[in-house]
Design a protein that fits this description.
182 residues; mainly beta; 12 strands; globular
């Protein structure tokens, strides 16, 4: 996840045994994120070093503005999936990642290259919540046909810490993206 989501790019999971897959339940609204409110900024590291802002955060719409520096694996993976080059000549990129509830009750995601306001990816997405989620720790998956993003968020006092992992098809993208409140 784009994200992200992301954010940043929603990822795809490797093939999992049925027992592992059952740890997540599809939900019909975006859950409140542990320790995160609308307009909060988080700093990111790993695959995408930079910052992100949750500009919309509700049960039917999630939007994250991203200002990040991608590592070479993340940039190559994104360009491979979208089948084109990103607008930025450097690895400093700006994305907008959204998850929206549709009129039929399903969710879709959109990933925009903010450098040229071009839609890079869109499609259906399932919002999944992990069985062990509670008021201090949360596991989410944003699962699309091509990509999947697995996110873990933990409240640590007044701060939050988290980790996002991404997958393209059955293959995990090397590395991950740790994050905390900015």
């Amino acid at each position: 996840m784009a994200t992200a989501v992301m954010p940043v790019l929603p990822g795809i999971s490797p093939l999992m045994p049925a027992a592992a897959a059952s740890k997540y339940t599809e939900v019909n609204q975006i859950p409140a994120l542990v320790g995160i409110k609308q307009d909060d900024w988080i700093k990111t590291g790993g695959l995408a070093t930079g910052k992100m802002q949750f500009t919309k955060l509700g049960s039917n719409h999630l939007q994250i503005q991203q200002q990040i520096n991608l590592n070479r694996f993340a940039r190559a993976a994104i360009e491979q999936v979208v089948e084109r080059k990103l607008s930025s000549k450097t690895n400093d990129v700006k994305f907008r990642f959204e998850v929206k509830k549709q009129s039929d009750g399903t969710f879709s995601y959109l990933l925009f290259d903010e450098g040229n306001n071009q839609l890079l990816l869109s499609g259906p997405v399932k919002v999944m919540v992990g069985a062990g989620s509670n008021s201090r720790s949360q596991q989410l998956e944003f699962k699309a046909p091509l990509v999947k993003m697995h996110v873990t968020i933990e409240q640590a006092g007044k701060d939050i810490k988290g980790l996002a992992k991404y997958y393209i098809g059955p293959v995990p993208i090397p590395g991950n993206m740790p994050f905390s409140r900015l």
